[in-house]
Write a structure and sequence with these properties.
Shape: globular
Number of strands: 0
Structural class: mainly alpha
Number of domains: 1
Strand content: under 5%
Oligomer: single chain
Order of helices and strands: HHHHHHH
Helix content: over 70%
Number of helices: 7
Length: about 150
């Protein structure tokens, strides 16, 4: 049975998310023996961001709280997340039904949070995230429905 282009795109998207988290994890790993607070302050200053505004402040506060065991837990979480994304991408690429169900559930779980974010802080980024996620879930559910009805996907 031929893999539909939509599922192929979702598989590539999931693999890209896993790859991005792996790269971020390696970036964090490179900072293990550095003063993360100082690195974060330098990055915010280099990007000419206001350290008192919302997102740079969240970033600076997170960097201040990271160290030793916290960083280890964060790296382990990043590795687990990337592994899950790669397994999901493999399953979707190989047209596995379990991967389609997993993609539908794992994508659908974020939709209420994305709706809340869009309602409380409207903007193009939350709208784009919601639209992309709803599209992914719809593609996967459509593939599941077609398979269930006996039609090839």
């Amino acid at each position: 049975m031929r893999l539909p282009d939509g599922l192929r795109a979702v598989a590539l998207f999931e693999a890209a998310k896993g790859g991005l988290v792996v790269l971020a994890g390696f970036g964090l790993l490179a900072l293990v023996h550095h003063d993360l607070q100082r690195v974060a302050e330098h990055l915010v200053a280099h990007l000419h961001l206001n350290p008192a505004s919302r997102y740079p402040k969240i970033f600076l506060d997170a960097a201040a709280g990271l160290g030793g065991p916290h960083l280890t837990v964060l790296l382990a979480g990043a590795a687990a997340y990337a592994a899950v994304r790669f397994i999901e991408a493999y399953g979707l690429w190989n047209n596995r039904r379990w991967a389609q169900w997993f993609a539908a559930v794992s994508g659908g779980v974020y939709i209420p949070f994305e709706i809340y974010e869009l309602a409380t802080d409207p903007g193009w980024l939350p709208a784009a995230a919601l639209l992309l996620n709803v599209s992914v879930v719809a593609l996967v559910l459509l593939a599941l429905l077609r398979t269930q009805r006996g039609r090839p996907t």
